[in-house]
## 1
Amino acid sequence: MQVMFRCRVRPDEVARNLELLQDVYDEMRSVRPKGLRYATFRLEDGVTFVAFAEMDAGPEVLRELRAFQRYRASLDERCDEPPVLTMLHEVGSYGFR
């Protein structure tokens, strides 16, 4: 399963969003969930975040992470507009994995 997640946070919530994301990545490095590849990018506007995830066993691998649960629990409150989740269907890639 491959997904893209996009959210636009309120300017006053950017620092908090970055802190919560750092906690997610710290836990991922500690737990090393199998079958998960995950990357988050901050766009040039400074308030839009895009994440790409590839999960061999489905979204449960993320839902099991406590830091991700904390990140997701308050996400709607931090956002200017509703987050968008898009399923991806790979056409091709080179050196991406």
## 2
Amino acid sequence: MTKLFKFTAIAEGISYLVLFANMLIVKPSNLELYKTLLFPIGMAHGLLFIGYVILALAIRTAQNWSFKDLFVVQVASLLPFATFYVEKKYVRNA
């Protein structure tokens, strides 16, 4: 389960950055391409976000996270690049 969480954390972080790139780079230059890409990128990011949150709750006891650690892991899902930090610092023995 820890390997799955590590993969999901990295994939969620990448999808978040791709979503931002679509919004900041593609939207100003090509509105049609932006609209075409928005749904599949957004859907993938949404599913990965939900998976990240659920898997974090599921592996909480296996990783011996305190409430504070779990809070940091959950808040990291809302910040760009933070899931990469969580994957490095909080996830052990994968």
## 3
Amino acid sequence: MAAKFEIYEDAAGKYRFRLKAANGEEVASGQAYETKAAAVKGTEAVKRAAQDAELKDLTEGN
């Protein structure tokens, strides 16, 4: 099973997404959106941004 995004409605009636790993563990979640379409666009933005994302270790030098 591959990783997947899930769209859901929270207790306040807002739409959110979460990213689940292949093992079913939640590895990321998104902010609250007013519409389901906006939440879907949020998942697409994460996919685009993650393609070339670098890891910046903010603990270095501490």
